[in-house]
Write a structure and sequence with these properties.
It is built from five helices and two strands, in the order ααββααα. By secondary structure, the protein is mainly alpha-helical. The two termini are 33 Å apart.
Length: 111
Amino acid sequence: MPYKEKEIEKKYYSIGEVANMFDVATSLIRFWESEFDLIKPKKNRKGNRQFTIDDIQHVKLIFHLVKKKGYTLQGAKSMLKNGSQSAMDRMEMVESLKNIRVFLSEIKNRL
């Protein structure tokens, strides 16, 4: 079996990297951090935010609720208060279904 190099995964991401992931301004990420208790990045000695994968998943969930589903901030907060895990599960299910749709479309185009 040939040696396959394991992809290196970063432990922390800067606020700029997180903002680029979602194509939003860093100020929006900072604003969501102040509005939602779920987002709690660590800060280094300089005060720069260091986002973990979990933080990014929470930003992703908030992005999904506010930007994709059209929830108000208050609506997103109450949705998360009533069960962030169920909201996360639904978001992941929708993403999986979209990926399946793309895959099936590619198969259809090849036929």
